[in-house]
Amino acid sequence: MEYFLQGSVSKDSVENLLGRLEGLCDNTSHERDKFSDHEIVYSLRNGNTSVVLRARHSLVDQAAPWFDYEFVSTGYYFYKGHMKITVSQIFKLVAPGEINNLQLISESYLVEVGFSTAVQQDSVGDEIKAFAEHLKPLVHLDKVDHRKLQTQAMTS
Asked: For residue 83, which of 50, 22, 128 has the smallest C-alpha distance?
């Protein structure tokens, strides 16, 4: 079971948010932890039914069939207990597989708070919501219904 909230913060406020996260999170005894991921989204469609697989990989094998889009996210990550918080900018690939030819999608930063557990635990959802309150008014985190977004994208 995964508990997940997402939000967006403006470029002008990202340093304030990173400072707040450094004060709230566990992994802040050294310089900021950075990441850079390449994600490909595969969609298998059969009539009105589709299955979506999101894959992040090492960029070793560029032969990726059936992908709808791919992107690179670059930013910072933090931990608060078992929660993982990322603050990142999203770049689209100008040409498939060419990770050195990127175009920034937005000046805003994507903020994600996630927690994975083997069983459903209402206390985890409450813990994530309580943590999200500490990040207001810089960022307002909320649940995202990816199935609804996928359905809307397929009909438009």
From this structure: 128
